[in-house]
Specification:
four-stranded antiparallel beta sheet; about 0% helix; five-stranded antiparallel beta sheet; single chain; mainly beta
Amino acid sequence: MAIKKQVIKTKPVCKVTFSIEAKEATTAAVIGDFNNWNPSEGALAKLKNGTFKATFDLPKENSFEFKYLVDGTFLNDPEADSYRWNEFANAENSVLEV
Protein backbone atom coordinates (compact mmCIF):
# COMPACT_ATOMS: atom_id res chain seq x y z
CA MET A 1 0.00 0.00 0.00
CA ALA A 2 1.19 3.45 -0.74
CA ILE A 3 0.07 7.05 -0.65
CA LYS A 4 1.74 9.70 -2.80
CA LYS A 5 0.96 13.40 -2.32
CA GLN A 6 1.68 16.13 -4.85
CA VAL A 7 0.85 19.66 -3.73
CA ILE A 8 -0.36 21.94 -6.54
CA LYS A 9 0.96 25.42 -5.72
CA THR A 10 -1.39 27.24 -8.10
CA LYS A 11 -4.57 25.49 -6.86
CA PRO A 12 -6.09 24.77 -3.46
CA VAL A 13 -5.75 21.00 -4.02
CA CYS A 14 -3.32 18.18 -3.45
CA LYS A 15 -3.15 15.30 -5.93
CA VAL A 16 -3.21 12.13 -3.84
CA THR A 17 -2.44 8.77 -5.42
CA PHE A 18 -3.63 5.72 -3.53
CA SER A 19 -2.31 2.28 -4.46
CA ILE A 20 -2.74 -1.15 -2.96
CA GLU A 21 -1.30 -4.47 -4.08
CA ALA A 22 -4.06 -7.05 -4.36
CA LYS A 23 -3.16 -9.53 -7.12
CA GLU A 24 -6.00 -11.95 -6.35
CA ALA A 25 -8.67 -9.27 -5.92
CA THR A 26 -11.25 -8.36 -8.53
CA THR A 27 -12.30 -4.96 -7.12
CA ALA A 28 -10.74 -2.30 -4.92
CA ALA A 29 -11.71 1.20 -3.86
CA VAL A 30 -10.56 3.87 -1.45
CA ILE A 31 -13.46 5.15 0.63
CA GLY A 32 -13.44 8.01 3.08
CA ASP A 33 -15.02 11.21 4.19
CA PHE A 34 -13.65 12.91 1.05
CA ASN A 35 -16.04 10.83 -1.12
CA ASN A 36 -18.90 10.13 1.33
CA TRP A 37 -17.58 6.56 1.87
CA ASN A 38 -18.89 5.71 -1.60
CA PRO A 39 -16.98 2.84 -3.31
CA SER A 40 -18.09 3.90 -6.80
CA GLU A 41 -16.54 7.36 -6.27
CA GLY A 42 -13.29 5.82 -5.02
CA ALA A 43 -12.85 2.98 -7.50
CA LEU A 44 -9.23 2.00 -8.14
CA ALA A 45 -8.06 0.68 -11.52
CA LYS A 46 -6.25 -2.66 -11.61
CA LEU A 47 -2.84 -2.56 -13.28
CA LYS A 48 -1.15 -5.50 -15.01
CA ASN A 49 1.13 -6.09 -12.02
CA GLY A 50 -1.87 -6.65 -9.70
CA THR A 51 -1.76 -3.23 -8.04
CA PHE A 52 -4.91 -1.13 -7.84
CA LYS A 53 -4.31 2.60 -8.23
CA ALA A 54 -6.04 5.97 -8.69
CA THR A 55 -5.35 9.68 -8.17
CA PHE A 56 -7.78 12.12 -6.57
CA ASP A 57 -7.71 15.91 -6.14
CA LEU A 58 -8.32 16.64 -2.45
CA PRO A 59 -8.61 20.07 -0.81
CA LYS A 60 -5.40 21.19 0.90
CA GLU A 61 -5.05 21.77 4.62
CA ASN A 62 -7.51 19.05 5.56
CA SER A 63 -7.55 15.76 7.41
CA PHE A 64 -9.50 12.81 5.99
CA GLU A 65 -10.42 9.41 7.39
CA PHE A 66 -10.32 6.56 4.89
CA LYS A 67 -10.05 2.81 4.31
CA TYR A 68 -9.50 0.53 1.36
CA LEU A 69 -12.34 -1.77 0.33
CA VAL A 70 -10.89 -4.85 -1.39
CA ASP A 71 -13.38 -7.50 -2.51
CA GLY A 72 -15.68 -6.47 0.36
CA THR A 73 -12.96 -6.42 3.05
CA PHE A 74 -12.03 -3.16 4.80
CA LEU A 75 -8.28 -2.50 5.17
CA ASN A 76 -6.27 0.31 6.73
CA ASP A 77 -3.15 1.69 5.06
CA PRO A 78 0.03 1.00 7.07
CA GLU A 79 1.55 4.16 5.53
CA ALA A 80 -1.29 6.42 6.72
CA ASP A 81 -0.31 9.63 8.51
CA SER A 82 -2.14 8.37 11.63
CA TYR A 83 -5.18 6.38 12.75
CA ARG A 84 -8.38 7.55 14.40
CA TRP A 85 -10.99 5.55 16.28
CA ASN A 86 -14.42 5.82 14.65
CA GLU A 87 -17.40 5.15 16.93
CA PHE A 88 -19.77 4.58 13.99
CA ALA A 89 -17.58 1.85 12.47
CA ASN A 90 -16.37 0.64 15.89
CA ALA A 91 -12.89 0.43 14.36
CA GLU A 92 -9.83 2.51 13.56
CA ASN A 93 -9.66 4.35 10.25
CA SER A 94 -6.55 5.48 8.41
CA VAL A 95 -6.01 9.26 8.45
CA LEU A 96 -4.59 11.31 5.58
CA GLU A 97 -3.26 14.84 6.17
CA VAL A 98 -3.09 17.07 3.07
